[in-house]
Specification:
Layout lengths: L3 E4 L3 H13 L3 E7 L6 H5 L2 E6 L10 H11 L3 E3 L9 H9 L3 E2 L4 H8 L1 H10 L15 H11 L3 E9 L2 E6 L2 H19 L4 E5 L4 E10 L5 E13 L2 E7 L6 H17 L4 E10 L8 E7 L6 H8 L3 H10 L15 E8 L1 E2 L5 E2 L2 E2 L2 E3 L20 E5 L6 E2 L6 E9 L2 H13 L2 E3 L5 H9 L1 H5 L6 H5 L11 H26 L11 E6 L2 E6 L5 E2 L2 E2 L2 E3 L7 E6 L2 E10 L2 E6 L2 E9 L20 E3 L4 E6 L6 E2 L4 E7 L2 E6 L4 E6 L6 E2 L4 E5 L1
Parallel strand pairs: 1-2, 1-4, 2-3, 4-5
Antiparallel strand pairs: 6-7, 6-8, 9-10, 9-12, 10-11, 11-14, 12-13, 14-21, 15-16, 17-20, 18-22, 19-21, 23-24, 23-31, 24-25, 25-26, 27-28, 28-29, 29-30, 30-31, 32-39, 33-35, 33-38, 34-37, 35-36, 37-39
Helix pairs in contact: 4-5, 7-8, 12-13
Length: 672
């Protein structure tokens, strides 16, 4: 077995590889940029080599620096993780030329599957169903319009070398193609060094199903069941689960055998994933089509590990060393259900804008990479696993992917796994930047998710006007009001003791007016706790200053993140933020005399909603613009964001230049 391997990646996937290598008795080498000098993966590795400035193009994407680090440290093999150089044939070839093993598939398979246009041809030749589309790359917008009309809208424009949701745009009409084709080309060029774009038919009611493949260098290839990744935003996966609630045993076998045949056709070995699009409109479930093959480890691999007990990283290392697979297809089973939520640095309350900055507080429900030994640690602690690569006080940088952590839960059933997600998300503390914890919690509670009726349009269909917090029942509001009254009493108790205004017997206010979500409740804690006169069974421990409390109200248990405000508390639980006003019952009637403050009108300014690069500025001083017209494009965390005019106006002043890095809330231009 290898004695030392180098990880050509960063963040949580570098930590993930190091964890398995440690268990196998293999030493590890990390490479790092300026931005990652203090990152956890650098501390976890046995050795670390500095490879350059923060931008990936000047560090992690330079193969020569990675190879030099491997030679310097005597690493016998390189694991590329995902992204960066993981699917670049030139990197694998360069490693081979230096006698360094590549922990991944053969170069020929990477080349065959890395080009989406060529991979579709190979899949079709291998007898795999393929989606109707353009057989060759599209030259320009004019040709894109012609091809789109021939195929029939809606269509998907895809960068040929794209992946991970990058370089993909859905077009419902000519206008979408005109606006999006060149942007898709740019994303493909900037992210993958390839501006070729192809177009294919968009399948209605699509479900995204993928098959995990594992093969060795001796001709053995297995499929490790499926994952469903239908819940996506901007073609970026948000929720993944295994198995799929849609796939039947018959479908699983048909998909698996077809994907194995494709892998065999390209001489595949190591771990890989064949992505399929399935028409949810077909009740037979037999209308599935090849999308692409990812010749690497997937972000969502932990859910497969949780239901199979197989460590995919370990298998990749063993295969690269030349070992045969120790299992057969008959050994691959399904034990329980696993769900993964990606915790992103983005603000769902502000249109999912990327959010960079310092993690002022970072406290996951269980420590990252901790396990109880069950199923070799594939399921974390009591069915809760956190894969992360950040730390409290560290910074989520604009240079890399916005993922903070992956939260994986396992249960005997799908509902149990989802319930564990809700409880774990309530206990997941992140402060200092925007995050999507409330959003994914809302999804876990959504009736449509619970029913398994998923499509890739789930988020757009269920949150057409954006996300404003999970729906909260009247019962839950009553429970939160009771908790707020209890906490207010405890704080009043502490305040009076501190001020020495009482002697031995404490008499804080016991009657409160609690307002949240537009509803006002009368909460009393005199002899028993009541809400609007009805008794409430409440059990909780609270000491003033606690940020996270667990409360049992009736038969419900809540994990509540709590922070004081001027007139009450900010309470966050079960996917929603509640601004709670808590006033002594005698004081509450006086609030009607308060003057309401009117916020200023900022519609005449085009404000940068996030830190990022001003890629293009489409207007100049004196130009007239209409509502909805694109004014500028901001690139942040490898994604382009179009900023549009809110109303008809004339450009009065331009305060930024194309190519300039902008801070959040920077004024790009002024309208009149």
């Amino acid at each position: 077995m290898f004695k030392k391997i180098l990880i050509a990646n960063r963040g949580e996937i570098a930590c993930r590889i190091i964890k398995t290598a440690r268990r196998m008795g293999i030493q590890t080498v990390a490479v790092y940029s300026d931005a990652d000098a203090r990152a956890p993966f650098v501390q976890m590795a046995d050795e670390a080599v500095y490879i350059g400035p923060s931008p990936a193009a000047q560090s992690y994407l330079i193969a020569e620096k990675i190879i030099a680090a491997a030679k310097q440290t005597g690493a016998e093999a390189v694991h590329p993780g995902y992204g960066f150089l993981s699917e670049r044939t030139s990197f694998a070839e360069a490693l081979a030329a230096e006698g360094i093993a590549f922990i991944g598939p053969p170069v020929g398979a990477i080349a065959a599957m890395g080009d989406k246009i060529e991979s579709k041809k190979l899949a079709k030749a291998a007898g795999v169903n393929t989606v109707p589309g353009s057989p060759e790359a599209i030259a320009d917008t004019a040709e894109a319009l012609t091809v789109s009309r021939e195929i029939g809208y809606p269509v998907m424009m895809k960068a040929s070398a794209g992946g991970g949701g990058k370089g993909m745009r859905l077009a419902y009409n000519d206008k979408d193609v005109e606006e999006g084709f060149e942007a898709t080309q740019r994303e493909g060029l900037n992210s993958f060094g390839d501006e070729r774009v192809f177009i294919e038919k968009f399948i209605l009611n699509p479900r995204h199903i993928e098959i995990q493949i594992l093969g060795d260098q001796h001709g053995n290839i297995l499929y490790l069941n499926e994952r469903e990744c239908s819940i996506q935003r901007r073609h970026q996966k948000v929720v993944e689960e295994a198995p799929s609630p849609f796939v039947t045993p018959k479908m699983r076998q048909a998909m698996g055998e077809q994907c194995v045949a494709l892998a065999r056709a390209v001489g595949y070995y190591s771990a890989g994933t064949v992505e399929l699009i399935v028409s949810g409109a077909d009740p037979s479930g037999e209308s599935f089509y090849f999308l692409e093959m990812n010749t690497r480890l997937q972000v969502e691999h932990p859910v497969t590990e949780a239901i199979t007990g197989i460590d995919l990283v370990e298998q990749m290392i063993r295969v690269a060393y030349g070992e045969k697979l120790a299992m057969t297809q008959a050994d691959i089973g399904i034990d329980g259900w696993a769900i993964e939520n990606r915790v992103y640095a983005e603000d769902p309350y502000r249109g999912f804008l990327p959010s960079t900055g310092r993690l002022v507080r970072y406290d996951p429900p269980v420590p990252g990479w901790e396990d109880d030994g069950a199923a070799n640690g594939r399921r974390g602690v009591d069915g809760i696993r956190v894969d992360d690569g950040v730390y409290e006080g560290g910074e989520v940088s604009m240079f890399y992917d916005p993922m903070i952590a992956k939260l994986v839960t396992w249960g005997e059933t799908r509902d149990v796994a989802a319930d564990k997600q809700i409880a774990a998300l309530d206990a997941f503390e992140i402060e200092g930047l925007g995050h999507n914890i409330d959003f994914v919690s809302a999804i876990m509670q959504h009736p449509r998710f619970r029913s398994g009726e998923l499509t890739t349009g789930f988020i757009a269909e269920e949150y057409p006007d954006g996300f404003h917090g999970a729906a909260t029942s009247d019962e839950v509001l009553r429970h939160l009001a009771a908790v707020a009254g209890f906490v207010a009493t405890a704080r009043a108790d502490r305040a009076r003791q501190t001020d020495q205004q009482l002697a031995d017997e404490l008499e804080p206010p016991y009657d409160w007016s609690v307002t949240l979500a537009g509803k006002t409740f009368a909460v009393s804690l005199d002899e028993e706790i009541t809400v609007d006169g009805e008794p409430v069974d409440l059990a909780l421990e609270y000491t003033p200053g606690d940020r996270l409390i667990e409360a049992e109200v009736g038969e419900q248990t809540y994990g509540i993140k709590l922070s004081p405000t001027r007139t009450g508390f900010r309470m966050t639980t079960r996917g929603a933020i509640h601004q709670v006003q808590v006033l002594p019952a005698a004081v509450a009637p006086l609030t009607r005399h308060m003057i309401e403050k009117i916020p200023p009108d900022l519609s005449r300014f085009l404000i940068c909603p996030m830190p990022g690069l001003l890629v293009s500025l489409n207007v100049a001083v004196g130009d007239k613009v209409e509502a909805g017209q694109p004014l500028a494009v901001i690139e942040a965390m490898k994604m382009e964001n179009i900023l549009r005019a809110e109303k008809s106006a004339t450009v009065k002043a331009v305060n930024a230049k194309q190519g300039e890095s902008l801070a959040v809330d920077a004024v790009i231009l002024e309208l009149e």
